[in-house]
Specification:
By secondary structure, the protein is of the alpha+beta class. It has a domain at 31-125: Trna Endonuclease, Chain: A, domain 1 (3-Layer(aba) Sandwich), CATH 3.40.1350. The protein has helices at residues 2-31, 61-70, 85-95, and strands at residues 33-37, 46-49, 52-57, 80-84, 100-104, 112-114. The longest helix is centred in the first third of the chain and has 30 residues, at 2-31. Residues 19-116 form the SseB protein N-terminal domain.
């Protein structure tokens, strides 16, 4: 039994460290202006995956160029704006139809997702249900609507 407790303690420490690392990355993203491309209709470039609409954002022009190349669209002109990460999460994501998040540097090895969950996007548009890290078990009132 003591061995299991030790392993659980190590797992808990790893989980805590991973949460702290993600919180640091989220904070950095919120304070950083990223490049957000626009599609041919002058709308934010988004991608739908598994019922979530992801706003595509890029940390720099090189990351956007790699994305365009991977899509076979390197020759077309890519219009983009610099938008603060916090504005994307707090203002733009809630404007999306249905659940939405931000995909940073999509298609790159060091890309990152900021999903539509509590603590990342406003609670009103978060889709995580059930137990939370604080044990409140609060539920999203939009579920089922």
């Amino acid at each position: 039994m003591a061995v299991g407790g030790t392993a659980g303690g190590a797992d808990d420490r790893e989980l805590t460290a991973a949460r702290r690392q993600f919180a640091r990355l989220l904070g950095e993203f919120r304070r950083t202006a990223v490049l957000v491309p626009f599609d041919e209709h002058d709308s934010l470039w988004t991608a739908d995956l598994n019922g979530v609409r992801w706003i595509c954002a890029f940390s720099n022009e090189e990351a956007l160029a790699r994305f365009a190349l991977a899509r076979g669209e390197a020759r077309r002109e890519w219009k983009y704006r610099r938008i603060l990460g916090a504005r994307l999460l707090d203002v733009m994501v809630p404007e999306l139809p249905g659940p939405g998040g931000v995909a940073l540097d999509a298609g790159s090895d060091d890309g990152m997702l900021f999903p539509p969950v509590r603590g990342i996007v406003p609670d009103a548009v978060a889709v995580d249900l059930g137990e939370t890290g604080n044990g409140t078990g609060a539920r999203d009132d939009r579920a089922g609507s």
